């Protein structure tokens, strides 16, 4: 297992999470459970050379969860609580399942396929320190007249690089081919405390007030109740936030109705577009290689979240299995437009990703991502665009500073259970019809033609090529007017991969070939890029599973939606980019008999001092 390390002065942010909860089958693992896992495994593998790469909840079968939830008195015994572990031992990847009730290992398997598990912070840190005691690297710094105390090893430079074997934890190859001018520090300051005059106009902002009687939502452990919604907030070291068991109360039916069994970001694919020797490999899989969960940052009150926010902590296992706390990993708050937001921020390398789940009384769920942080930049010889006579694979942002073109593909896993598990995927195509009877001046109109996907091949969609509406419906239930109940997908910012299909990064990222996939529910099919993403060969991805072309009509199905951005950097993105936001919506379509907001009580009116009328 090897990691390429390049060298550059880079701004990094640290991560650091509170976990009061009642027992629930989908609650994330606790610090005591992490410690128990560590004890059990190290008792079986008496060594200091075992590294924990993934520890997460081994979820009970779906029907066990549903049975437990339907037991109104909760007298039914909870499903068995288990953990799934991927550990690295003697250059092999072990898959281990532990049962907490018996405090024992119930399954062990050696992975024999392609790819490696998620990188740990520990091995990345050690690998990045190795060059500082490596003489050829020190000679390279001296040749460039760089002070070793000013250098941080990372992955964004040109000219010299090392390859580290992570199992042996040693440098196995090194080269220094050419010298590129190091970009100047002038004009790169972004910290507010270090800014110097002149300043722009002072902004007052808008204050957020809390209800007199406290928040309008309640949190019991990881279960949240607000307005007509109930849902569960989970956490995973790889995916980060997980929203489960989202149900909405139907006033007319006098009961909660299922909408979403589980949703999370399955993968974030970030291919940079520089094919040169030092950059060709920079095609990151932020969840599968680096971990969206372990990269979550501690949220800052009044900065990352408004004054009325409530915070939750989270825990993940370090490479030694010891639990690490992320204080304020989540914040939950109400917005003035009457919605509830669950927010987290993952800092993966140079990018900050603001992840929002927003619930509305209308029944809609909005899923948003905001991108900010520091661009992936490379050094160059140019100071003006007039000097450029070749493809530099990016935008010249400052002297000797190139912001490299790249993409951000966000692939969401959405196990929608619309009023039950038996669902179908329906494309409502909008088609033009020519008027034939000429009774009016109109010559055409458009109408809808519904198409129900029978197999996975029918449900692959590239949005934008043909006008249509996409929905997951329950074909077994209808409204009083006879319409099939469902939830529509209102897509996010749409992008399509521009790499050729046989390019290695695109083979691994083939799950981005379509904006929408639908698969039958399979407990093991969780990660769009496969379980072992690092150095994978694309043989265990969503694209591979889908080509089995299984039946999906009136089945328990999973919707996968990819949205994102092609990013052409501009000078306004440097040195820190303003937030670029996008998102999509899951919106009820004939799910209710009428608009559910009509009988929602409005918040108390606020009397604004600047109103000219009191009407």
Automatic annotation (TrEMBL):
A GO BP annotation: amine metabolic process
Name of protein: Amine oxidase
Domain named Copper amine oxidase N2-terminal: residues: 24-110
Required cofactor names: Mn(2+); Cu cation
Record carries keyword Disulfide bond: yes
Record carries keyword Signal: yes
Source organism, top-level taxon: Eukaryota
Signal peptide: 1-17
Keywords: Copper, Disulfide bond, Glycoprotein, Metal-binding, Oxidoreductase, Signal, TPQ
SUPFAM superfamilies (alphabetical): Amine oxidase catalytic domain, Amine oxidase N-terminal region
Coiled coil: none
Active site: 286, 351
Post-translational modification: Topaquinone (TPQ) is generated by copper-dependent autoxidation of a specific tyrosyl residue.
Gene3D superfamilies: 3.10.450.40, Copper amine oxidase, catalytic domain (2.70.98.20)
Gene Ontology MF terms: copper ion binding; primary methylamine oxidase activity; quinone binding
UniProt similarity note: Belongs to the copper/topaquinone oxidase family.
Domain Copper amine oxidase catalytic: 211-336, 337-598
């Amino acid at each position: 297992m090897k990691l390429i390390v390049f060298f550059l002065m880079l701004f990094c942010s640290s991560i650091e999470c509170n976990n009061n909860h009642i027992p629930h089958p989908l609650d994330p693992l606790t610090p005591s459970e992490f410690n128990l896992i560590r004890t059990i495994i190290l008792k079986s593998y008496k060594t200091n050379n075992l590294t924990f790469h993934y520890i997460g909840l081994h979820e009970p079968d779906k029907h066990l969860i549903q049975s437990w939830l339907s037991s109104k008195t909760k007298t039914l015994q909870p499903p068995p609580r288990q953990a799934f572990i991927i550990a690295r031992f003697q250059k092999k990847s072990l898959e281990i399942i532990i049962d907490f009730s018996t405090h024992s290992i119930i399954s062990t398997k050696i992975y024999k396929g392609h790819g490696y598990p998620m990188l740990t912070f520990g091995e990345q840190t050690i690998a990045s320190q190795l060059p500082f005691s490596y003489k050829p690297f020190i000679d390279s710094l001296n040749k460039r007249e760089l002070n070793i105390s000013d250098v941080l090893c990372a992955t964004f430079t040109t000219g010299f690089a090392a390859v580290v074997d992570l199992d042996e934890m040693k440098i196995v190859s090194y080269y220094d081919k050419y010298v590129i001018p190091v970009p100047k520090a002038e004009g790169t300051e972004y910290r507010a405390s270090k800014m110097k005059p002149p300043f722009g106009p002072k902004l007052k902002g808008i204050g957020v007030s809390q209800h007199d009687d406290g928040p309008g939502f309640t949190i019991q452990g990881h279960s949240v109740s607000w307005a007509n919604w109930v849902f569960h907030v989970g956490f995973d070291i790889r995916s980060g936030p997980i929203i489960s068991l989202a149900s909405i109360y139907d006033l007319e039916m006098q009961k909660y109705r299922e909408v979403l069994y589980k949703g999370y970001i399955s993968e974030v694919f970030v291919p940079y577009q520089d094919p040169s020797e030092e950059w060709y490999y920079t095609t990151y899989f932020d969840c599968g290689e680096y971990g969206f969960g372990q990269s979550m940052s501690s949220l800052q009150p009044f900065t990352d979240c408004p004054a009325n926010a409530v915070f939750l902590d989270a825990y993940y296992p370090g490479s030694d299995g010891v639990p690490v706390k992320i204080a304020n990993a989540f914040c939950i708050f109400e917005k003035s437009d009457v919605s509830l937001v669950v927010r987290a921020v993952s800092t993966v390398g140079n990018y900050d990703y603001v992840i929002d789940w927003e619930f509305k009384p209308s029944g809609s769920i909005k899923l948003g991502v905001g991108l900010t942080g520091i661009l992936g930049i490379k050094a160059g010889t140019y100071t003006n665009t007039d000097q450029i006579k070749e493809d530099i694979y990016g935008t010249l942002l400052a002297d000797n500073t190139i912001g490299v073109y790249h993409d951000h593909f966000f692939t969401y896993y959405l196990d929608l259970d619309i009023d039950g598990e038996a669902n179908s995927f329906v494309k409502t195509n909008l088609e033009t019809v020519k008027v034939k009877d000429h009774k009016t001046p109109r010559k055409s109109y458009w109408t809808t033609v519904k198409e129900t996907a029978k197999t996975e091949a029918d449900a692959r969609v590239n949005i934008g090529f043909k006008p249509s509406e996409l929905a997951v419906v329950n074909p077994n239930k209808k409204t009083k007017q006879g319409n099939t109940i469902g939830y529509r997908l209102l897509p996010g910012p749409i992008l399509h991969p521009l790499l050729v299909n046989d390019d290695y990064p695109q083979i691994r990222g083939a799950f981005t070939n379509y904006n929408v996939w639908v698969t039958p529910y399979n407990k093991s099919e969780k990660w769009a890029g496969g379980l072992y993403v690092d150095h994978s060969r694309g043989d265990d991805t969503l694209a591979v599973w889908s080509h089995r072309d299984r039946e999906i009509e009136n089945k328990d199905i999973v919707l996968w939606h990819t949205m994102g951005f092609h990013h052409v950097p501009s000078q306004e993105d440097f040195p820190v980019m303003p937030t670029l936001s996008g998102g999509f919506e899951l919106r009820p379509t004939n799910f209710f008999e009428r608009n559910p907001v009509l009988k929602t009580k409005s918040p108390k009116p606020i009397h604004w001092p600047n109103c000219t009328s009191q009407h």
